[in-house]
Specification:
With about 300 residues, this protein is an alpha/beta fold. The chain has 13 helices and six strands.
């Protein structure tokens, strides 16, 4: 397994923290979140929240810009082009591509996977979105049309919180709901635009309910797992109770790993060292590279 990490500088959470602090200053006399949250949402929207969030979304998009764009080639597009070359050179080998994105990473992957498909990169076997902050309309435009075996995304898995947990979360202990609700109510130019990671948005949209089989037993190429699940083990487990907690939540990450590896609920995902000769055990370099590694 060769992991590739994408990082882009946004300053989003630091800037949002300052924005929320300023918004809080005007509503200190209130104690109920039913009162303070709408006031903070209004203040954040007026004080430039959509500009901050819009800049982050723009950075995610520009990462996949083509060499012909006014900004030049983005780093993600460069990686996609090299990935195409690599896959072409090893076309006869069983190479699998998988993508995982947390929160705003879903917006990044909307553009990256679309660019990869246009270039001719083979279909990704799986895409896993954790608490995705992407709008439903952008998801539908960039990713939904890629769904299906060989079309670009063979299988989609979404891990996100149930509605009550989203409402019990907080942002910087100032806004008393999750970041996804702050985006939904205050950070988009058009407020209350449906967000893919919000359960209420998924259930309200007939197309999303159908895609994720929310009204019937799952039988398609898209699935959503709502935390907290009854179990903490297996392919469909998630115990995160905060928006930022999914990538640190062992049940969630083990579920992602099982899906990538094609492991069943009962299969082991623990790696042990192979048997060694005494000479090999005496080699300090050998010892450094093959310690027992527990995935979870």
């Amino acid at each position: 397994v060769y992991p590739i990490y994408f990082v882009w500088d946004t300053g989003l959470f630091e800037t949002l923290g300052q924005l929320l602090s300023r918004a809080q200053a005007g509503v200190r006399s209130f104690v109920s979140d039913h009162v303070t949250d709408p006031l903070i949402e209004n203040a954040a929207h007026i004080a430039g929240g959509p500009v901050i969030w819009g800049g982050m979304k723009s950075a995610a998009e520009l990462a996949s810009a083509t060499p012909e764009s006014p900004y030049g080639e983005g780093g993600a597009h460069y990686v996609a082009s090299k990935l195409k070359v690599f896959c072409d050179l090893h076309s006869g080998e069983p190479i699998e591509l998988h993508a995982v994105g947390h929160s705003a990473g879903s917006i990044f992957h909307a553009h990256f996977l679309s660019a990869a498909r246009r270039i001719g990169v083979p279909s990704f076997k799986s895409l896993h979105l954790l608490a995705p902050a992407i709008r439903v309309d952008l998801f539908s435009k960039c990713l939904k049309n890629l769904m299906g075996s060989g079309n670009g995304i063979d299988q989609l898995s979404v891990f996100t919180m149930r509605r009550d947990l989203e409402r019990d979360d907080n942002c910087a202990k100032i806004y008393r709901k999750s970041l996804l609700y702050l985006i939904y109510h205050a950070l988009e130019p058009e407020r209350k635009e449906p967000i893919l990671g919000l359960e209420e948005c998924l259930r309200r949209d007939p197309k999303m309910r159908n895609l994720f089989a929310l009204d019937s037993p799952h039988s398609g190429n898209a699935e959503v797992v709502f935390s907290c699940t009854p179990t903490s083990e297996g392919r469909s487990a998630s115990c995160s109770t905060t928006h930022g907690g999914f990538d640190d939540d062992a049940p969630t990450m083990n579920s992602v790993l099982r899906r990538i590896l094609g492991k069943a609920d009962a299969d082991s995902i623990v790696s042990y060292p192979r048997k060694r000769s005494m000479a090999a055990l005496m080699d300090p370099w050998e010892n450094q590279v093959d310690w027992p590694a527990r995935i979870d």
